[in-house]
Specification:
The complex is a heterodimer of chains A (283) and B (290). Chain A has helices spanning 2-31, 51-56, 71-98, 106-118, 121-136, 145-167, 172-179, 184-212, 216-221, 228-237, 243-282. Chain A is mainly α and 283 residues long. Chain A folds into two domains: 2-56, no CATH class; 71-238, MetI-like fold. The longest helix of chain A is centred in the last third of the chain and has 40 residues, at 243-282. Chain A is globular and about 75 Å long. The N and C termini of chain A lie far apart (55 Å). In chain A, 43% of the residues are buried. Chain B has a single domain, classed as MetI-like fold (Orthogonal Bundle). Chain B has a two-stranded antiparallel sheet. The chains are: A mainly alpha (283), B mainly alpha (290). Chains A and B meet through helix 1, helix 3, helix 4, helix 5 and helix 6 of A and helix 1, helix 3, helix 4, helix 5 and helix 6 of B.
């Protein structure tokens, strides 16, 4: 009885809840079309324009508002995210593969890995820069200290995704391959890997996006050259302009593009698997 | 590696090689840095340099400074407020998504909708609260147009309130996800049986739904706690430097090369986190429940 009343009320509530989640989304979407260069980052919209998008790409005459220093930062962030993605995924696949067998100390190793995603970035960032700065006496760079900190953060995600995939994995196909005399490495490449590929893709997606948007670890560990989140953070202390919102919209679209690529690759691999299964059925 | 030995034995012996890189990486770049924080917190700090002579000076400094101890209390207070709000706001949403929605597709779609905002840069999402909450912000404009208020509300932005709003909005999803997951696993027959025996929804909720979703609540609470306690960006962006959390202290101390003091705050934060997480894990035995 009560759930008859409760359900519609909660449905409305969830609607409001989503509105709350998407609030900032609407704000930046709207304000990115603020008139420029006089229009500030606030409501109401004086006049709709694409000024701030053109401003982002340097397509407007110079004004008192400097363009966002994002060009090089963007390239650094993409490179860093790519490096992190490859390393974290390789480590994650290897570790998860090891966890298919029971081994001594598995519990400790599990917690050690998961710790990487649980310890706040401010602590790993601080610790990494202490280690580099005060003990080893090496300079901090985005591609050294920040990179290792990013892997510490993303490797656990890749590991957990792979663990979930391998948990449902039927080991008999591998055994069949081994018993036919195929070497373990070749078996992994030809049998195991294609089967776990969707998981690998998900792990890569996780690692890339987490690293691309990573901020606290990078703040401490990256030294002089800024990554994208650091460049954005740099604008916090000075006056903000709608160009930052236009940029927010652009990065969101970029993320969606990435998600689309993921979706397409996933679809392809699923279709290939289906095709193979069908061929096997026929045979 | 040769391929001549039996594959089975080979895989077993491969385990250490598969696990070693990850473990070494985590020891070198996670455990060692944290140990370093503890170690450096006892170093001697002078104005421009730091040396490894052990001293308690920075620790004494922390506990005798009102600003630092104040930051500790602010962190704990904000954490409790945000934790409470994410639970209160998140639970009903999770209840709907995880339990009341009958179709699996709808519930998946709703969860995906919750996750999509995360594809926008975290910092820009935080920043987007400024035009909402400011003195000339959207909320004030709407309230004044509606005639509800005559003067703009100024405490909305650059206050503790704006930090709470910002954090709640960013972290509430981490509460919704695990709770919805646990609610989705509840056997509907139990609820059906209770209803047949004449239990009202209130009773079913308190006696069945809430207890069975506790593991989800605990996981969500751990996520939210870990993230809120280590926060500094949201408070930096939305409080106008009025709200200083432990994280903010660490950032400013590192900024002025006061590594020892930053480390002291780091250790305190670590201890706080340890207590909180251990406390939550005592409530529910996650290993058994999941």
């Amino acid at each position: 009885m009560e759930s008859k009343i409760l359900k519609p009320i909660l449905a409305v509530y969830v609607g409001l809840f989503l509105l709350f989640l998407y609030g900032p989304f609407f704000v930046l979407g709207t304000l990115s079309f603020q008139q420029g260069p006089e229009g500030g980052p606030q409501f109401p919209i004086i006049e709709w324009s694409t000024y701030w998008y053109r401003h982002l790409f340097g397509m407007v005459p110079p004004s008192r508002i400097a363009p966002l220093p994002v060009g090089e930062a963007l390239i650094r962030s993409l490179t860093l995210a790519f490096m992190t993605m490859v390393t974290a995924t390789v480590l994650g696949v290897m570790a998860a593969q090891a966890f298919r067998k029971r081994f001594r100390g598995a519990g400790v190793v599990f917690y050690l890995i998961v710790l990487g995603m649980m310890v706040p970035g401010v602590l790993t960032g601080l610790g990494t820069s202490l280690l580099a700065n005060n003990v080893l006496g090496i300079e901090r760079h985005w591609w050294t200290t920040a990179f290792v900190a990013h892997v510490v953060y993303t490797f656990p995600f890749a590991f957990l995704v792979m663990l979930a995939i391998l948990n449902r994995f039927d080991g008999s196909v591998e055994e069949a391959s081994w018993s036919l005399g195929v070497s373990p490495i070749r078996t992994f490449r030809k049998v195991t890997f294609p089967l776990i590929f969707p998981g690998v893709l998900s792990a890569m997606l996780f690692a890339f996006t987490l690293s691309f948007d990573e901020f606290p670890r990078t703040l401490f560990a990256s030294g002089r050259d800024q990554t994208l989140p650091l460049a954005i953070y740099g604008t916090f202390s000075v006056e903000i302009h709608p160009n930052i919102f236009a940029f927010g919209v652009m990065t969101t679209l970029f993320s969606f593009a990435l998600l689309a690529v993921y979706g397409i690759l996933m679809g392809l691999s699923v279709r290939r698997a289906k095709k193979q299964a069908m061929q096997e059925d026929i045979a | 590696m040769s391929d001549t030995t039996a594959p089975k034995g080979k895989l077993k012996s491969a385990t250490p090689w598969l696990i070693a890189p990850g473990v070494v990486w985590m020891i070198l770049f996670l455990v060692a840095p944290i140990v370093m924080i503890i170690y450096v917190s006892f170093w001697t700090q002078s104005t421009f340099s730091i040396d490894s002579t052990l001293t308690l000076a920075s620790w004494k400094n922390f506990f005798s400074s009102e600003a630092y101890v104040g930051a500790l209390w602010t962190t704990i207070r904000l954490w409790l407020i945000v934790l409470f709000l994410t639970f209160i706001i998140g639970y009903p949403a999770a209840l709907f998504v995880g339990l009341l929605v009958k179709s699996k597709t709808v519930s998946t779609v709703l969860l995906v909708l919750c996750v999509i905002p995360f594809w926008t840069s975290f910092l820009i999402r935080v920043l987007a609260w400024r035009p909402m909450l400011g003195k000339e912000g959207a909320i004030n404009i709407i309230l004044m147009k509606a005639g509800i208020i005559a003067q703009p509300i100024e405490v909305l932005l650059f206050s503790e309130l704006s930090v709470v709003i910002g954090m709640t909005q960013i972290y509430v999803v981490f509460m919704v996800g695990p709770i919805a997951f646990m609610l989705g696993r509840i056997d509907r027959n139990i609820i059906e049986a209770a209803r047949d025996l004449g239990a009202g929804f209130g009773r079913i909720f308190w006696k069945i739904i809430l207890p069975l979703s506790m593991p989800g609540v605990v996981v969500g609470a751990i996520f939210v706690s870990v993230m809120v306690l280590g926060e500094f960006a949201t408070s930096g962006a939305l409080s106008g430097r009025k709200v200083n959390l432990l994280g903010n202290i660490i950032v400013t101390q590192v900024g002025s090369l006061k590594w020892a003091m930053a480390s002291v705050v780091g250790v305190i934060l670590t201890v706080l986190l340890g207590i909180v997480v251990a406390g939550f894990l005592r409530i529910v035995d996650l290993k058994r429940e999941l």
